[in-house]
Amino acid sequence: MRRFAFLTRCRQRLTLNAMYIGIFLGVFFVFNAWWIWNYRSNQPLNIDEAGYLCLAVIDYYGLHYGWLNGWLHAISMPSLQAPLVPALTSLLFGVIGPNINFAFVIPLAGAIGCIVAAYDLGIVCRSRWVGWAAAILVASCPVIIWYSRTYEFATWAAFTATMALIAIIRSKNFKNFYWSLVFGASLGLMPLARTMTIAFVPGMVAAAFWVTITEPSGGRPRFLNLLAGLLFAVLISAWWFIPNGRGVFAYLLGFGYGAHAGEYGRYVPILNFRGLLHWTKFTINAELLLPHAIILVFGFCASIATLVRMITHSRFADIIRNISYSPLIPLLIFCTEATLALTSTKNIGSGFIVPIVPALMVLASTAIFDISSNRNVRFFCSIVIFMIALIAVLPNITLHSSLARARTVNLPLLAGVTISNGLAPIEAYEQHAGYGQDGSTEPVSVRSGHAWLKLDDRTAINLRNDLGSDSSIAFAFRDVLYNVNTVNLAALLQSGRAFDVQQIDPVKTGTSVNGYFKWLQRNRNFCGLLTSSGTEGQFLPAINPIFMKKAAEQAGFLPIAQWNTPDRQEITLWKHRAVLPNCP
């Protein structure tokens, strides 16, 4: 009878806890879905979002017209972008149709997965208290909130990485075959969720080998399970990376360490104090913000204090054994390697730190939990974590609040550090391009946003009518809101067909008439050309419109149509004077 009473209490506790976590996740979903509906619905996308959504729509058409074979063929088409998130979005489109507004459900679902994974990781590493603390810190972390509202791949990369860590620990040093396969599946999906996480794979593999070699018994079966997991990971990722891997690695190396790295990063040395300081400041200001950074610093100090206490009260052999068997070591190995990878490149990227955020919050929560076994101390720590989470969440409730504006404080070495900021990546993206007033929380108004979307639709129609759907078209400008990806997305939604478009790369062409002319001459199959009269709202380095006009005339293009953008720039459509074989 006592046994049945114990089982009943356990079942009731699990049911109650499941209800609590369900309510917590429901609040997170409603909170962010409301924000997305108000500020992202029928509004401009950034260039990456538009490109990823093009892939999702293509995958949807493959599913719609070709069922499973068509869907798999569309997903495996040559691409530089990871296929997982567009593929999941295409399944959603298969139910509701290609509605871009509802595509944001997918990154939001990835963020919810991160919260659940952080909760479970905290439990398997220490306790339910640590699980709740980690879940609250992840759910309130600005970079998680922001990328749950952005159609990019960060949240799903974080979810797969955290699931791999959970599988390493739950596999019991890879004694459990099924959890070994879960590890392999999660590891294989990491680079399919976001290709840049290839840089994090060595840390994850090192963490898996660590837990395998630190267990003295049953070595052969455990190594076989680990190898089975690694083989499973290779099989999952190989089908896409075999045809696409060469281009992906060239792209990642070029933007990570090549000529394009500085374009999207920092012009400072890497892997030294100055570079590390710059990366730390960027990470705090643009991703974590000061409250969550304080939690990580406090967790680090608490872990040092715990280590000192162990040294003074335990034998050296016991300390080494406790550290070796600690479930936190795989997390520490993974986070350390990932941080080294991130600080080795000039490209500070967008949301690159997200995959390690759940693990970092579990490490910090565990260190804080281990400060003292006193219930009052732990209750006080819980209050502090809750207050920090509240401070982080409040600015992200609405853009129509003074709390949404960025607030900074001066700190030694780091200078201005951001305490709070309610702007999602899309607002920061627009602000960086020069839209809006200083301190504006909505750089592009709702009305202006609609006008930019109508411009994409109009351009797609004009290109189809004047040049034909099969024409190859050059974009001789790089506007943040109006570019190859936004126009192609409009074309796909209108007719189900994308244009063969290429956008100029000023890093390669330089800024000269001759450089632009050579770019047009190298691509002699261009039937049409789009140029802009200004440089406002363009990525730097911007294209010189006067030089580009001269290059277009020299290359044999004639202007055939003109229209204006919402920010009063004049767009000119050019057509090649010669009747090229590939042009209609």
> Span from first to last CA?
84 Å
Structural category: alpha/beta
Contiguous helical run count: 21
User: Describe the biggest sheet?
Assistant: 5 strands, mixed
SSE order: HHHHHHHHHHHHHHHEEHHEHEHHEHEE
Instruction: Find the count of extended strands (DSSP E, 2+ residues).
Output: 7
Poorly predicted residue ranges: none
The coarse overall form would be: globular
Residue share in helices? Answer: 55-70%
The share of residues in extended strands comes to 5-15%
* Alpha carbon gyration radius: 26 Å
Spatial order of strands in the largest sheet? 4-3-5-7-6
How would you characterize the overall build of this protein?
It is built from 21 helices and 7 strands. By secondary structure, the protein is an alpha/beta fold. Strands 4-3-5-7-6 form a 5-stranded mixed sheet, covered by helices on one side. Strands 1-2 form a two-stranded antiparallel ribbon. The termini are far apart.
Brief sketch in words of this structure:
The protein is α/β, with parallel strands linked by helices and 584 residues long. The chain has helices at 2-39, 47-75, 84-96, 105-125, 128-140, 142-148, 154-170, 177-193, 201-213, 219-256, 273-313, 316-325, 328-343, 357-369, 375-393, 425-432, 446-466, 484-495, 506-509, 513-522, 545-554; strands spanning 407-411, 415-420, 472-475, 500-503, 528-532, 557-564, 570-576. A hairpin with a 5-residue loop joins β6 (557-564) and β7 (570-576).
What does the secondary structure layout of this molecule look like, with pairings?
Blueprint: H1 2-39, H2 47-75, H3 84-96, H4 105-125, H5 128-140, H6 142-148, H7 154-170, H8 177-193, H9 201-213, H10 219-256, H11 273-313, H12 316-325, H13 328-343, H14 357-369, H15 375-393, E1 407-411, E2 415-420, H16 425-432, H17 446-466, E3 472-475, H18 484-495, E4 500-503, H19 506-509, H20 513-522, E5 528-532, H21 545-554, E6 557-564, E7 570-576
Parallel strand pairs: 3-4, 3-5
Antiparallel strand pairs: 1-2, 5-7, 6-7
